[in-house]
Description:
The protein has helices at about 15-20, 40-45, 50-60, 95-110, 125-135, 165-190, 200-210, 220-225, 230-235, 290-305, 350-360, 375-380, 395-405, 440-450, 485-500; strands spanning about 5-10, 25-30, 35, 70, 80-85, 115-120, 155-160, 215-220, 245-250, 255-265, 265-270, 310-320, 330-335, 340, 365-370, 385-390, 410, 430, 460, 470, 480. It is an alpha/beta fold and about 500 residues long. The protein has two domains: about 5-160, Leucine Aminopeptidase, subunit E, domain 1 (3-Layer(aba) Sandwich); about 185-500, 3-Layer(aba) Sandwich (Aminopeptidase), CATH 3.40.630.10. The protein starts with a strand and ends with a helix. The mean pLDDT is about 100. Bound molecules: ligand BES, manganese (II) ion and zinc ion. Zinc ion binds next to strand 11.
Amino acid sequence: MTVPKLALTENTDAAVGKTRADVVVIGTLQGEDGLELAAGAEVADAAFDGKLAEVLGTLGATGKAEEIVKLPTLGKLPAGVVLAVGLGKRKDGAITPEQVRRAAGAAARALNGTERAFVTLSAVDLHAATEGIALGAYVFTEYRSEKGDGPLAKADLVSPAEGTAREHKATLKAAGFIAESVIIARDLINTPPNDLFPASFADRAKKLADANGLEFEVLDEKILKRKGFGGILGVGGGSSRPPRLLRVSWKPAKARKKVALVGKGITFDSGGISLKPAANMDHMTSDMSGAAAVLASVVLAAKLKYPLEVTAHIPLAENLPSGTSYRPGDVLTMYGGKTVEVLNTDAEGRLVLADAIVRAAEENPDYLIETATLTGAQVVALGNRISGVMGSDEFRDRVAGIMQATGEGGWAMPLPDELRGDLDSRLADIANVTGQRWAGMLVAGVFLREFVPADLPWVHLDVAGPAFNSGGPWGYTGKGGTGIPVRTIAAVLADIADQG
Ligand code: BES
Ligand code: MN
Ligand code: ZN
């Protein structure tokens, strides 16, 4: 699916008329003394003789986050409707980008079926408003025979007072690319597992790579066998649709650093022989969210021409029970030679990731960013909106800070050394699970650490909850795939390009 057509416009009465907008979107705030209008609302306010806040108050508007109030303009403005969306309260005297992003997203969702909107929220924060509109407008109707009204088709965003026209153009373009990449990830996640399996994921990745000037390589099951990728082959062995390992690279002429990305690509996770319960098993269509995110992130690195070499390593497998499945009790020899005793075939993500991590590390990257829908324990510990951020101390803290700042939400978590002993195996180098239930998210991280070179700055993002929204829509997040952590990876890459 695509983003609405995005354009910059001036914030004038004449501009509203010229754009032939159907709706003018303004922001409202919960101020100290009640409802306030956000920057950008001046034109609409003037049309209502400076009484727009009063009129909205009469309609019950308070300015609370994501509140939507629509009112007809009755000819006072060229657009027929004003849509007021709440930003909530100022935080420390200011409106945060995430407040703008969520308000813009809520407005875009409410504009489903509208052709064209004149968005003034962008006067507060153009970048955040653009992302919010583009992501909030997203719908996935690929599998519906009736497509319905369709999302908002066009958004005209007013420029903020600060900055030059050139800067605004660049901001709009970058925010549009970021939203497009999040949507690439969402589309992949939302595609059902009968259509998205290792080989078809690889085909789609190849098309994206070709369209964006990326290097592309795919290893099929025969090559995986020859090269000894025991983790990927073990997990993928139960499915009639064999596993793959992808390598997708953005290599600019002058790269300042080399960043490896690794994302878990289980196109469906039934648990295998250690079968999952039936309830909500369908959510495991999203167990390739990490793979989708890292693929979308290299595409983005190319579109934004980051001065970094960025390579995504994507292990793809379907975890199913069958006569050819791997079993609890099997010992796998992983890529690079370490052996793993499989005590639970449902702890499969760490097995495919370990192979991909070892391969990624062979290329001596400066950083490794790895992400996965890895553990139910992440959801228990941090819920559906905050991802677990683990890895090498310094890089972990840097990424956790960035993840909070993007609004995707992430919190630093430790990898306690003492958990390693719980993974000791009766016969192999390590077991894939412990004999107890506590600290499941950290245990998975401790397992992965065994495969990461000690001197490589590494971060592990467990996005099990946040990658897929099984509840109702909120802000710029609809039901289904969220695209987390694409925006975090983008921001970390930008930070590395900037700071090293
Ligand atoms: N894909 C699941 C984790 C998951 C759970 C993702 C809920 C999204 C929502 C993973 O492969 C898994 O099954 N993990 C097991 C590990 C356990 C066997 C140690 C889990 O969390 O139960
Ligand atoms: Mn599993
Ligand atoms: Zn899984």
